[in-house]
Amino acid sequence: MTTRGQIVAAARGWLGTPFHHQGRLKGVGVDCAGVIAEVARELGVADVDLRGYGHRPDSRELERLCHEHMTAVPVAQAQPGDVALIMIDGAPQHLAILTGLHGGRGMLHAYAPARRVVEHGMDQDWTDRIVAAFVMPGVE
Predict the structure, then answer these.
(1) Is 49 exposed, middle or buried (0-12, 13-18, 19+ CB in 10 A)?
(2) Where are the domains of the chain?
(3) 3-state secondary structure 62-78
(4) What is the mean pLDDT of residues 89-115?
(5) What would the 3-class secondary structure string for 24-54 be?
(6) What pLDDT was estimated at residue 61?
(7) What's the fold here for domain 4-135?
(8) 54-83: per-residue pLDDT in tens?
(9) What is the pLDDT of residue 50?
(10) pLDDT for position 140
(11) Which residue, 15, 10, 22, 32, is CA-closest to 110?
């Protein structure tokens, strides 16, 4: 079994990787879906990846794929190591791994405006934009 702590640790290995749409190479370039896919692959919990999506992915398709490949949990019960589906520009089209940071809630994601993978605390704005949360396969 994989722990949520292992997911967070693996995700932190991607910090600073430049943002690159559909990228999948640590230290070279990755997008938000790539972080999730590559952390899951690295830990052996899943080997699912998608490409060919636009800069603004189809939110219905993204949400469907999350439900198909992970287990939904109530957002209020999401823990560090879980995956958050986040609203951007009014549609659920962004993914992040939840973390614990400085005694509070945090999130790690490939964030285009920052041009790299970042981890930061979650203020009310980010918290309000989470529309769904998921546990990766094989996580205890």
Answers:
(1) middle
(2) 4-135
(3) HHHHHHHHCEEECHHHC
(4) 94
(5) EECCCEECHHHHHHHHHHHHCCCCCCCCCCC
(6) 82
(7) endopeptidase fold (from Nostoc punctiforme) (3.90.1720)
(8) 666 666 888 888 998 899 999 999 999 999
(9) 67
(10) 77
(11) 32
Q: For residue 75, what pLDDT is reported?
A: 97
Closest CA to 30 of 96, 100, 121: 96
Among residues of the chain, what percentage have pLDDT more than 90? 73
pTM of the full structure: 0.93
Q: Give the pair of three-digit tokens for residue 111.
A: 């964030």
Q: Going by C-beta distance under 8 Å and a sequence separation of 6 or more, which residues neighbour residue 10?
A: 39, 42, 43
Report whether 64 contacts 36 (CB < 8 A). Answer: no
Q: Which residues contact 49 (CB under 8 A, 6 or more apart)?
A: 24, 33, 34, 37, 41
What tokens does 85 get?
Answer: 């589906």
> Across all residues in the chain, what is the average pLDDT?
91
- C-alpha–C-alpha distance, residues 61 and 1, integer Å: 28
